[in-house]
Write a structure and sequence with these properties.
Distance between the termini: 31 Å
CATH topology: Nucleotidyltransferase, domain 5
Strand content: 25-35%
CATH superfamily: ATPase, nucleotide binding domain
CATH class: Alpha Beta
Number of helices: 2
Oligomer: single chain
Helix content: 10-25%
Order of helices and strands: EEEHEHE
Length: 88
């Protein structure tokens, strides 16, 4: 399955990666630590990646754009509609 859109949930230690295809079917759900994220994203086919904008998000976005990904940063007030469950 070719995922076309991925979302990355920010956290201090473990990041959640979620990917869907053109029809909205879930293709990828993966937990990654910060050191694992960039090598994992580097081996993916170019796609759109959505992230919440924060202090380090711009640096991460620049690294991901080097591999051809279309990174979109979402302002924090606009993130809650994309959440499926409450965060702890």
């Amino acid at each position: 399955m070719q995922t076309t859109v991925r979302g990355i949930d920010l956290a201090k230690n473990v990041l959640q990666l979620h990917g869907v295809d053109d029809q909205g079917n879930v293709g990828v759900r993966k937990k990654l630590t910060r050191p694992q994220l960039l090598p994992f994203v580097a081996q993916l086919a170019p796609c759109r990646i959505g992230r919440e904008a924060c202090q380090g998000a711009h640096s991460w976005a620049r690294e991901m754009r080097k591999w051809g990904h279309d990174v979109r940063l979402i302002r924090p007030p606009f993130v809650p509609p994309y959440r499926q469950s409450h965060k702890n």
